[in-house]
Write a structure and sequence with these properties.
heterodimer; A: alpha+beta; Phenylalanyl-tRNA Synthetase, Chain B, domain 1; Phenylalanyl-tRNA Synthetase, Chain B, domain 3; 5 domains; 7-stranded mixed sheet; 6-stranded mixed sheet; 24 helices; 32 strands; B: alpha+beta; BirA Bifunctional Protein, domain 2; 2 domains; 12 helices; 10 strands; rod-shaped
């Protein structure tokens, strides 16, 4: 918000520090001064007043009082001496009716007659312009001026344009304004608008009103949107003679609600939304009336019309001076604390005997808080005041003296670090993507539940289950259409990364660890029951570890998962063929034959597979992509740091090769199992080193070749012993009718 | 006289053989002394003119010298032909570029996060996490940010319906943690936050924040200054200065704005700090009594401070990254620099 340096200076007899110096002081003790700009003969300070201080510091007086507290310079109130004309009585012109007290805690009005509308004096225009307001005419400018000075929005309207006053009366009353006619008395009503009412504002905007919007009305229709903007038709123009000044205090929530509904923010609504001291209405209206008297030669009617059912009085806060020192961590003296509070305008009350007795030696005081300081309500608020005026820069760093307990180890984070390091060693690069999807991803991926989430059976959706779009969580207010949903998988964005990077990198290995989000799909009867309870299904977030790599790399990826799990101390895992249901094939993300579930102790902890060509085409990726997708939270619960060293045998290992011709659909695992069971503990390892399918082989067969490593930990195996084992393995393999060991 | 000639000739020759650098040079030496018109050959040839006794003596020493020299040349030839010598003479350009090994890369935010965690762990802080989908209670109400209050406008929020939203800061974890753990406590909470804000080079809708919280019987702003100062110095590996200015957050009272001396210009003023010499990096303050209350603690018993730091901002400063959008661009040309 912009403030005029010259205007601020007007509250002080002594000279203020230079604009730059003042900006520095305010920044360090009050709020950041974002810019100091020269503006003709003035300087503009752009101060980032924080919301808690809006109530008193969206005003020059508020800032001036801050300057006074910081610098110790004496602040002087501006003049507002009103000469009321005894012959004109305000109550003969208007009366106030507030329909709902909570919407308007105070409504103050004054009548100023015989005004001469014209342009404002230059000094006033300059101050308004410095603060970014356009001068209109002296009356309107004065209401704005009072608002910028005091922080209380004011509104002025032409009495003779109100409701029942017809044009013929207008002529007369302008001549006879000293003796208001009976019956010209107008009622001003503060009420909620009625459905269907409309208003055209001063700037020709038309608004449809409703029962949530507070208005100022005459006996017939709304004449202003309360606390936001005046209506057209009652504006001050050069013919205006009788001015009604309004200075009211509206409920912040009510104004905020109206402002949001109408999508209309003004200097007035901004101030009301933050709440203002009720006692300001009178100060502001008197200041404005005084200025009209001086500038527009108006005569102020006798009497302040004031609806103020509950008068706000200053409150008192008890402050423990030792607590001040303890919370700030400084040895600030009692005297200094009292001095700061005094400069801020907080009255320090003499301790009552009762309080003295009660508090004994503890250092307590009572401070009376001016009503304009809506932000100060507890002890800690006062400590902030003391701290900032004293200067946070004067607080010396002190390390806490308390016993330092060792921090608790967070296993999730520990394993996260371990896993990320493993992928780094495996030459993967880590990416961070946005947590959002658009319709495009939703369409391409079709939202296959089993692919993404644990615990859901591989089952086609039935009529009774949720429609697909409900699986994704949709944002109520997305930034754009591409970020309409929360991501339910890390894969789509990783594929986008691949597409983007393939232009500059021939081979890509990337991974991400991050949250995915979904509505939980409830099955069958549970679903019906739950849905009756909640208007939408429960939402769930889960941390996934997902990697993608380009190329025909299924087995490389499988090796990577093996290594990952081994490094996490997990050995009892296996890969289960993941069969795609026939109906799913059209929409599945993965290659129907190259998809595996990763299982630990029979529980699924992730997937491994090749991305379907259909998906790759959509992403314009011209190479194969292998992915793995792991439920990280499950993984980190199973992971263990225990790792047992296996002694290196002192005796030599012997390697024998074996080749088996088997039908094509025989799985490698079956053969490995047979070799290892037949060979027993002396088979240290079995390596598959070749898979061959070719024309020379019989139709429908493949040849698998293995190295079998024999080794004992107790002795050197003789060739006779090895031959016996080898023959035993061959015999077992050949028990299968269609298997043939090639010697 | 001949004796001396032969002796000095032999010494000179041996020196020349020793100094010869390659086979060609060695050949030249051989020709010069032992060739048809070589010096030693000529001496041997002139023997026939000498008297018998003298001829025999000189002849003997000349022949001996010849043999010795031949042997020396042979040895030298062999030496010159060894691999070792070959290595010395082979031509090789070490200025040609090295081949780039393929290595993996951790995201710069991961690296910063680890550094932050490490520094705070050495000061006794545990690391905890919280959900990214939050409800209004933890994200706002419990943090003393009332409904329908303009203070809520400080956080532009993504709403998910049913009172759920994407957390706008990691501060909800303060209440979540204090509900389940009694003080004294020291925690940091790293995590992703969301702001309903259009993105540009310095604004992001998705951010990585680190929350810090310390609560004990007597915890002060002075303690906060000590711990945060230590953190900044360790994180940037530099003697960075930091300053506290007044600010406003509903969940802290007093509230602080934290700036550090510009790490690019050391506070002299440059384009990064917009000539101010200071960079705003965090918000902080003393825990508001209402936050203690909302977490089920008695505010009379406890004092504490909390802060929130943007990890992107710290990382950008550390590595002089000029566009915040790079972090979530997935661009390997960026990521593989870390």
């Amino acid at each position: 918000m912009n403030f005029s340096y010259n205007w601020l200076q007007s509250f002080f007899k002594q000279k203020l520090p230079t604009p730059e110096k003042l900006a520095e002081l305010l920044t360090m003790h009050f709020a950041e001064v974002e810019e100091v700009k020269k503006h003709s003969k003035d300087f503009i300070l752009d101060i980032d007043v924080r919301p808690n201080r809006a109530s008193d510091c969206f005003s020059h007086i508020g800032i001036a009082k801050e300057i006074s507290a910081i610098t110790g310079l004496n602040y002087r109130d501006p003049i507002s001496i009103i000469k009321e004309d005894k012959n004109i009585k305000a109550r003969n012109y208007i009366s106030i009716e507030v329909q709902h007290k909570f919407t308007c805690s105070r409504y103050t009005a004054r009548v100023v007659c015989d005004v001469k509308v014209g342009s404002s004096p230059k000094w006033l225009q300059e101050r308004l312009e410095a603060c970014g307001l356009r001068p209109i005419n002296n009356i309107v400018d004065i209401t704005n001026y009072a608002m910028l000075e005091i922080g209380q929005p004011l509104h002025a309207f032409d009495f003779e344009k109100i409701g029942s006053v017809n044009p013929s009366q207008r002529e007369r009353s302008s001549l006879l304004h000293f003796i208001p006619l009976r019956g010209t008395h107008e009622r001003i009503i503060v009420r909620f608008a009625k459905e269907g009412e409309q208003i055209i504002t001063l700037d020709e905007q038309k608004f449809n009103l409703n029962e949530d919007i507070l208005v100022i009305a005459d006996s017939k229709k709304p004449i202003a949107i309360a606390g936001i903007k005046g209506g057209k038709g009652l504006e001050i123009d050069e013919k205006t003679k009788i001015v009604i000044l309004e200075s009211a205090n509206f409920n912040p929530q009510t104004i905020r609600q109206s402002s949001k509904k109408l999508k209309l923010k003004t200097d007035a609504s901004l101030r009301f939304e933050h709440g203002i001291d009720q006692n300001l209405t009178e100060i502001a209206i008197n200041r404005a009336a005084y200025l009209i008297q001086e500038i527009a030669k108006g005569k102020t009617a006798k009497g302040l019309i004031d609806f103020y059912p509950v008068k706000i009085l200053p409150k008192t806060i008890k402050l423990n001076l030792n607590y001040v020192r303890s919370l700030l961590g400084v040895k600030i003296s009692d005297k200094e604390i009292k001095g700061i509070l005094g400069r801020l305008g907080f009255k320090i009350k003499v301790k009552s005997e009762k309080l003295k007795a009660k508090t004994k030696n503890s250092k307590m005081l009572e401070a009376e808080i001016p009503t304009r300081r809506l932000d100060v309500s507890i002890q800690e608020d006062l400590i902030e005041e003391i701290g900032r005026i004293y200067g946070y820069e004067k607080i010396k760093p002190i390390f806490p003296a308390t016993y330092l307990a060792p921090p608790k180890r967070n296993l999730d984070i520990f394993w996260e670090d371990v896993v990320k390091n493993i992928f780094k060693e495996l030459r993967f690069s880590e990416v961070y993507n946005y947590s959002f999807f658009g319709d495009n991803e939703k369409k391409i991926f079709g939202y296959q539940v089993p692919f993404l989430r644990e615990g859901t059976k591989v089952k086609m959706r039935t009529q009774s289950s949720l429609p697909k779009e409900q699986e994704l969580i949709e944002l109520e207010n997305p930034l754009n259409q591409e970020q309409k949903y929360l991501r339910a998988s890390l894969i789509p964005n990783l594929l986008k990364n691949i597409e983007k990077n393939l232009r500059s990198a021939p081979q890509i290995k990337i991974f991400e660890m991050g949250k995915v989000f979904a509505n939980q799909v409830l099955q069958g009867r549970m679903q019906v029951k739950k849905r009756a309870q909640f208007s939408s299904p429960p939402k769930k977030e889960e941390k996934l570890l997902t990697g993608v790599m380009t190329g025909d790399a299924f087995y490389e990826a499988k090796g990577i998962i093996d290594l990952l799990l081994n490094k996490l101390g997990i050995s009892n895992f296996f890969y289960d063929e993941y069969r795609t249901a026939a109906q799913e094939e059209q929409i599945s993300w993965w290659h129907p034959k190259k998809a595996a579930e990763i299982k630990i102790n029979g529980e699924r902890i992730g997937f491994l597979g090749e991305i379907s060509p259909r998906i790759l085409e959509e992403f314009k990726i011209k190479t194969k992509v292998i992915y793995f997708d792991i439920f990280f939270e499950k993984l980190s619960k199973i992971a263990s740091e225990e790792h047992e060293y296996r002694p290196i045998s002192a005796y030599p290992a012997a390697v024998r090769d074996i080749a088996v011709l088997v039908p094509r659909d025989v799985r490698v695992e079956e053969i490995l199992n047979k070799i290892e069971i037949a060979g027993g503990p002396l088979v240290r390892d079995t390596d598959l080193f070749d898979i061959y399918e070719g024309e020379e082989l019989p139709e429908g067969k493949k040849n698998l070749a293995f190295h079998i490593i024999f080794q004992s930990e107790e002795k050197t195996l003789s060739s006779k012993e090895i031959d016996e084992l080898q023959n035993k393995i061959i015999a077992v393999l050949e028990q299968e009718s269609e298997w043939q060991v090639r010697k | 006289m001949e004796e001396i000639d032969i002796k000095s000739l032999k010494i000179q020759l041996q020196k020349e053989i020793e100094n010869s650098g390659d086979l060609k040079e060695l050949n030249d030496i051989f020709n010069r002394y032992l060739g048809k018109k070589g010096e030693l050959t000529l001496i041997l040839r002139s023997l026939k003119d000498l008297p018998e006794k003298e001829r025999r003596e000189t002849g003997k020493s000349a022949n001996q010298a010849k043999q010795e020299i031949e042997k020396a040349i042979d040895e030298k030839r062999q030496q010159l032909q060894t691999t070792n010598h070959k290595l010395q003479t082979d031509w090789f350009d070490i200025t040609a570029p090295g081949e780039k090994p393929v290595v993996g890369h951790l995201h710069p935010l991961t690296q910063s996060k680890r550094k932050v965690e490490e520094i705070f762990q050495t000061m006794g802080f545990s690391v905890v996490e919280g959900p990214e989908m939050e409800n209004e209670w933890y994200n706002f109400d419990a943090l003393n940010i009332p409904k329908d209050h303009p203070a809520r406008d400080l956080w532009d929020t993504f709403y998910l319906g049913n009172g759920l939203l994407l957390r706008t800061h990691t501060s909800p974890s303060q209440v979540r943690f204090m509900e389940k753990n009694n003080p004294p406590l020291r925690i940091i909470v790293p995590g992703t936050c969301y702001r309903h804000e259009a993105t540009d080079a310095s604004h992001e809708s998705q951010l990585y924040q680190v929350e810090g919280l310390m609560v004990d019987k007597e915890v002060s702003a002075a303690n906060f200054k000590a711990i945060l100062g230590e953190f900044f110095r360790k994180f940037f590996n530099k003697n960075v200065k930091f300053r506290i200015r007044p600010d406003f957050f509903p969940f802290t009272e007093p509230s602080f704005d934290i700036s550090i001396s510009c790490i690019v210009c050391n506070g002299k003023g440059c384009s990064v700090c917009k000539e101010g010499g200071w960079l705003e990096v965090a918000g902080a303050g003393m825990v508001h009594p209402n936050v203690f209350k909302n977490a089920g603690l008695n505010p009379k018993d406890w004092q504490g401070w909390a802060f929130g730091i943007g990890l992107e901002r710290l990382t950008m400063l550390k590595y002089k990254i000029n566009d915040i959008r790079l972090f979530r661009s997935g661009d390997l040309r960026f990521l593989q620099q870390f």
